[in-house]
Specification:
Elements: H1 4-13, E1 18-22, E2 25-29, H2 30-46, E3 54-59, H3 63-74, E4 78-83, H4 88-98, E5 102-105, H5 107-113, E6 122-125, H6 129-134, E7 151-156, E8 166-170, H7 171-185, E9 193-195, H8 203-206, H9 208-213, E10 217-220, H10 228-238, E11 241-245, H11 247-260, E12 267-272, H12 279-289, E13 293-299, E14 302-309, H13 311-315, H14 322-326, E15 331-332, E16 336-341, E17 354-360, E18 366-367, H15 371-377, E19 378-379, E20 382-391, E21 397-402, E22 407-409, E23 412-414, H16 416-424, E24 429-439, E25 443-452, H17 460-470, E26 479-482, H18 496-505
Parallel strand pairs: 1-10, 3-4, 3-5, 5-6, 9-10, 9-11, 11-12, 12-13, 25-26
Antiparallel strand pairs: 1-2, 7-8, 8-18, 13-14, 14-15, 16-17, 17-20, 19-20, 20-21, 22-23, 24-25
């Protein structure tokens, strides 16, 4: 089903329900939202955009982002959302690979992008009069009919191991993801609001569907991004508010809440994913802000839809194995099967570490114009995630690391996250990243990059003692590198490729 149909239905049922917000200001109700989208679709059609054509979005968070998205779908085209923080050259590569003939941008991105685009690719800024004229075009009376197999979202992976790949997500994939949200994450009510503090090109934006279905509010912060103090204020004034956040965002939000004596009033739910949430961090988060946290695990190839750990489990301290469950990413979501395979594709018993695989209606159709990568990732109906993990007898999945991040030292497997968890239990460390360094004797040795909390000092002997008290001696870091910050991508994920490159070439870390 075309997701624009959900918007049309909601606008018919709840035409005066508030829809689009900039901070506390309501910009449009659902009838107005739908009418601008239908007109924008008419404008796209007048420009020659046909069903199946790709239209890119390269801009910062804005209410117009949702109008452009739904206008693309209303016209039956394929949305290609690109993180607005990418370099224009990176965005231009994605636009060319997708074969997009039109790009929606904003004032800054449109100007920066134009010199890098091929001839014939149009750039339309949402701040230009032409965008407003398109939103007043002769409307398409109804969304273009699309089947479940129709590709509607072309998501490009981060490309940390090479050029990014275009993940083909269908109408059926995203409908499945939305239904799993209702079943496994939480129900959405009309009085709720979704706050877009993380990039709308990724997980935050993909959570729009459920809130459109229920006629809830869509809020873009005045800052256009994540500011912890602003999030806390918006929770108080607009609540109940839900939001998607990377673990680094949760960490900053909790720090500000604790320092200001706040507890997240008005914030209904904070759904976190996109990297490891260390035990010490989530314990403090619940202590400071209460039972507001829900974890999901997904990938672009199975968007937001592999496992879920509900708020009741995140906040539980009574179950005999609550700590192990808190360290997990939860159980399989309702529309998928999850298993742990060995390299030959055999299912492993509970507790054994292997590669996490998933199959079901949320799994992507494949990679855009890349049959080789598709065949390597989708095998016998299963998506091989590249993530290493284990599943216990109750179905809880615990992530260890990406398969490429596993360290093999002296023939023994070492999972960096296990070492990171131990080091982060030291109260004076704020961040840790563990990687392997090539060694002629051991194959690899463990190296820990550590960031000491402001105003604190930590010595190597104390970190060694902590590790020797908690994990096997062979897992203890052989070297510690004290740094002021860790390299991260635009979504807050630590770039371990950069750390390994630094160790290989002894180049300085960029701050």
């Amino acid at each position: 089903m075309n997701p624009a149909t959900w918007l049309d239905r909601t606008a018919r049922r709840l035409p005066q329900a508030p829809a689009l917000f900039r901070g506390n200001r309501c910009l449009s109700d659902y009838a107005g939202f739908r009418d601008r989208v239908a007109a924008l679709a008419g404008g796209l059609q007048a420009r020659g955009v046909e069903p199946g054509d790709r239209v890119a979005l390269f801009l910062a968070n804005a209410s117009e982002y949702l109008e452009a998205l739904y206008g693309i779908w209303w016209a039956g085209a394929v949305a290609v959302p690109i993180n607005g923080k990418l370099h224009p050259k990176e965005a231009a590569w994605i636009i060319a690979d997708a074969g997009a003939a039109l790009v929606f941008g904003d004032v800054a991105s449109a100007a920066a992008l134009k010199p890098h685009l091929a001839e014939g690719v149009g750039v339309l800024s949402i701040a230009e009069a032409e965008f407003e004229r398109m939103c007043c075009s002769e409307p398409l009376t109804a969304p273009v009919s699309l089947g479940a197999e129709a590709v509607i979202w072309l998501f490009y992976t981060s490309g940390t191991t090479g050029q990014p790949k275009g993940v083909m997500l269908t109408a059926g994939n995203l409908a499945s993801m939305a239904l799993c949200y209702f079943a496994d994450v939480e129900e959405v009510r009309q009085e709720d609001a979704i706050l877009y503090a993380a990039p709308m090109s990724h997980g935050a934006g993909i959570y729009n569907f459920m809130h459109v279905m229920r006629g809830a509010r869509h809020v873009v912060p005045e800052s256009g991004g994540f500011d912890a103090a602003e999030v806390l204020r918006l929770g108080e004034t607009l609540g109940p508010v839900s939001m998607f956040a990377a673990p680094t965002m949760v960490r900053r939000l909790v720090d500000v809440a604790r320092a200001s004596g706040q507890h997240g009033e008005g914030l209904r739910s904070i759904i976190y994913a996109g990297g490891p949430m260390y035990e010490a961090d989530i314990l403090e988060a619940v202590e400071v802000m209460g039972a507001r946290f829900i974890q999901i695990y997904g990938q672009g190839e199975c968007p937001m839809g592999i496992t879920a750990l509900p708020r009741v489990t995140v906040a539980d301290r009574s179950h005999p194995r609550w700590r192990q469950r808190l360290a997990s990413v939860g159980c399989a979501q309702s529309e998928v099967e999850v298993a742990i395979f060995d390299p030959e594709g055999h299912s492993l018993p509970p507790g054994e570490v292997g590669e996490i695989v998933v199959r079901g209606r949320t799994v992507m159709k494949g990679y855009w114009q890349n049959p080789k990568a598709t065949a390597a990732t989708l095998r016998d109906g299963w998506l091989w995630t590249g993530d290493m993990g284990a599943m216990d007898g109750d179905g809880y999945v615990t992530l260890h690391d990406r398969s490429k991040d596993m360290i093999i030292s002296g023939g023994s497997n070492i999972y960096p996250r296990e070492v990171e968890e131990v080091l982060l239990s030291h109260p004076d460390l704020s961040e840790v990243a563990v990687v392997g360094k090539t060694d002629p004797e051991w194959g690899e040795v463990v190296v820990a990059f550590v960031v000491v909390a402001p105003g604190k000092t930590v010595d190597v002997a104390a970190l060694d003692a902590l590790c020797l008290d908690r994990i096997a001696r062979f897992k203890r870091p052989k070297h510690y590198r004290f740094v002021s910050t860790l390299p991260k991508n635009n979504y807050g994920k630590v770039l371990k490729t950069e750390l390994r490159r630094h160790l290989l070439h002894e180049t300085p870390l960029e701050e």
